[in-house]
Structure prediction request, 157 residues.
Amino acid sequence: MDLRLAAYAVCIEDGRVLLARHAPPEGEPNWTLPGGRVEHAEDPFDAVIREVAEETGLEAVVERLLGVDSRVVPADERRLPGLPELQNVGIFYRVRVTCGQLRPEPNGETAEPVWTPLPDVTRLVRSSLVDIGLALAQTVPPTGHVAPVPVGGPIRH
Prediction:
């Protein structure tokens, strides 16, 4: 089993959420939250700020920890065939943009960051991370845990 520790930004302003179009070299593009892998010896708090800047061109500050989600992606549902199952441990933060201008990630897999009206999210082909982050932001559960998000239809791992 592979293990991935990642930090994700949930940024909601004026009824819109900041999403990024993930365009991997292999596999279908989908919409996701800005965020990604926590580097060796990096604090997840710092990682989410770095990831927002890298993927969107925006500077952000963390307002609060929303929660932690741990889920296993079965091997047959991973983007690349032949990889083992993946346990993704995601730390979700509510962030606020302080400055910057939206732009794609230079030389990266994030092709297009956009502010998306919340009602439009359900029609997008998106990562389950989007639904997890939005559920955490809307409910702010005291335990920091959200119920599993079913994957299928427009929702992907």
